[in-house]
Amino acid sequence: EVKKESTKKEQQKLVQGDNAKVLAKTETHKLSKELNLSSEQQKKVYEIYLNHFEGELKKKKK
Q1: Secondary structure of the chain: what % helix, strand, coil (to 5)?
Q2: Measured on CA atoms in the order 56, 20, 14, 46, is the torsion positive or negative?
């Protein structure tokens, strides 16, 4: 399970109106470098981040 908490940095990015796909890609890349993920793992991580950030952006718009 992935934590649904955002760091201050992530929240700042969201406030700036960043695209969920850009955020997901950035975070996936960071994690991939840290953990040396396979491409299959990267896809899964990307999907999770994308879901998370889209949810966060929807909350911000309300």
Answers
A1: 75, 0, 25
A2: positive
Quick one: tokens of 11?
A: 């929240």
Q: In this structure, how many other beta carbons lie within 10 angstroms of the beta carbon of residue 20?
A: 18
Give the pLDDT of residue 45: 96
pTM over 0.85, yes/no: no
- Show Cβ contacts of residue 14 under 8 Å, excluding neighbours closer than 6 positions: 6, 23, 53, 56, 57, 60
Instruction: Determine the pLDDT at residue 28.
Output: 94
How is residue 52 annotated by DSSP?
H
